[in-house]
Amino acid sequence: MANKYRKDFPLLNNTDFAYLDNSATSQRPASVIAADAAFYEHSNANPLRGSYPLSVEATAVYENARKKVKAFIGAKLSKEIVFTRNTTESINLVAYSYGLSNVKAGDEVLVSIMEHHSNLLPWQMVCRATGADLKFIECDMDGSIDLDKIRGQITDKTKIVAITQVSNVLGRKNPIKEIAQIAHEKGAVIVVDGAQSTPHMKIDVRELDADFFAFSGHKLLGPMGIGVLYGRKELLSAMPPFLSGGEMIETVTREGAKYAELPHKFEAGTVNAAGAAGLDAAIDYINYIGYDNMEALENELTSRAFYGLKEIPHVNIIGSDNPLEHTGIISFTIDDVHPHDISEVLAADKIAVRSGHHCAQPLLTHLGVSSSARASFMFYNTNEEVDRFLESVKTLRSRMGFSN
Q1: DSSP per-residue string spanning 330-369
Q2: Which residue is catalytic, options 359, 369, 383, 387?
Q3: Distance (Å, whole) CA 245 – CA 84
Q4: 185 neighbors 178 (Cβ within 8 angstroms)
Q5: What is the DSSP letter of 207?
Q6: How many CA atoms lie within 13 A of 293 on its CB side?
Q7: For residues 361 and 279, is the Cβ–Cβ distance under 8 A?
Q8: Domain span(s) for CATH 3.90.1150.10 in the chain
Q9: pLDDT by residue for the chain (404 residues), tens digit each?
Q10: Tell me, which fold does domain 32-287 have in CATH?
Q11: Residues 6+ apart with CB under 8 A from 4
Q12: CATH 3.40.640.10 in the chain, residues?
C-alpha cells in the first residue's frame, strides 16, 4: 500500500537510499514542490504591501494558506495563526513576548524532561531573566508520565506549562488535554510543541485546550523555513511584538509606533509566501491521504521494525514495549557500538538514520543513555526498507569486530 504514494515523492524515486530520518524532516510530494515553484513563477511580489494585481495575488496566496492552517488545526480565527520560520521560532516568540511579560520572580515554569531543546532553552532564558524557578515533569523509563504527580506539581505559582505532544526520542504521546485542564485550574497557560505530533495525527487545538501550539512545515511534508504558532486571540492581543520592523506596524512617528493588528504584528519583514503556499499544498496532500490511513501504514512499518529489532541480540530499544506507543519513532542502542558508528555503517548500506542526543540531552541523561540511533518512519516508507534496515543492524556488530 505504501508504494501507492511513493510515486508522489520525487526524491524517493531519485535515490536508492532508504530514508528513515523522517522525524528530522519529511520528504516533499511533487505537489508541494510545484506549489512553491508556482508562487515564484506566477505570483512573486511582496505580499501585503502593494495595491497592484501581482501583489494582491501574492497576498491572497499567503492569506489563503493561513485560512487553510486555521481549518487544519481547528483554530477559531485566522488571526490566531502566526507564520514563523519553524517550531523553534514559534516557541521563542511565546517565551520572549508572553513569558518575559507575564513571569516574575517567585513564579514557576514547568516543563517536561522529554522536551526538545527548542522547548527547554527558551524557558531557561525566561527563568534566568525573571528570577522564576524552572521545574521538571519527570517520565518513567517507557516515557509515560503520571497525571497525579503533575497535578501536585502545578500550583498557584505555576505560570507556564511547556510540553511536547509527542517526544522526538521516544515517540510517546502525552495527554495534553488532561494537562491543559490541570494547568487552567491553577491559572497557568500551556505551550504545546506539536512538531512531532502534527505530521502523524489530527490536531484540534480547541479540543486540546492549548493556549499556544507550535509546529513546523518541513516535518509535515511542507517546505523548510515555514512554521506556525497558534495562540489564543486574547493572549496574542495582549503580547508585545517579538520582532520590530516593516509590516508589523500601522503607523510610525519619530517617537514611536502603533503596531498592526493580529497576526501581522508578529510577522515583521518580508514573509515567506512561497513557503506558505507549499504548506497549503502539504495540508491538501495530507487531507487527500487521511490521517487514519497514514497512521495505519506507519503503525505497520513501526511494528515490523520494532519486533524485528527485538529479535536481534544486543539491541536495546528505548521507551515503551508497545510499538504503537512510538508514533513512528524507534530509538535504540547496540551493545559496544557507538550510535555514530551505527549511523555510519547503516549509511554505507544506503540507509539513513539519525544518531546523537536528538536535541534532548536531559531526557537521555534521565534514561541513563548518552546517545542513541533513531529510525523514524512515515507512510511512504516500505516493508522492504524496514527489512533492509533490520538486515543491516543484524550484521552490524560482527562487521564492527564483535562476536554475536
Answers
A1: EEEEETTB-HHHHHHHHHHTTEE-EEE-TT-HHHHHHHT-
A2: 359
A3: 15
A4: no
A5: H
A6: 11
A7: no
A8: 290-399
A9: 457 899 999 999 999 999 999 999 999 999 999 999 999 999 999 998 788 999 999 999 999 999 999 999 999 999 999 999 999 999 999 999 999 999 999 999 999 999 999 999 999 999 999 999 999 999 999 999 999 999 999 999 999 999 999 999 999 999 999 999 999 999 999 999 999 999 999 999 999 999 999 999 999 999 999 999 999 999 999 999 998 877 776 777 777 777 878 899 999 999 999 999 999 999 999 999 999 999 999 999 999 999 999 999 999 999 999 999 999 999 999 999 999 999 999 999 999 999 999 999 999 999 999 999 999 999 999 999 999 999 999 999 999 888 76
A10: Aspartate Aminotransferase; domain 2 (3.40.640)
A11: none
A12: 32-287
Q: What is the pTM of this model?
A: 0.96
CA distances from 227 to 12, 49, 323, 383 (A): 24, 22, 29, 31
Cell of 160: 507556564
Residue holding cell 524515486?
A: 13
Indicate the fold that domain 290-399 takes in CATH: Aspartate Aminotransferase, domain 1 (3.90.1150)
For 401, phi then psi, to 5°, come to 95, 10
Q: Determine the length of the chain.
A: 404
Q: Three-state DSSP class for 214? A: strand
Alpha helices by DSSP H, 223-290: 233-238, 273-289
- C-alpha grid cell for residue 130? 525573571
Q: Is position 359 annotated as part of the catalytic site?
A: yes
What is the DSSP secondary structure assignment for residue 80, as one 8-state letter?
G
Strand, helix or coil at 176?
A: helix
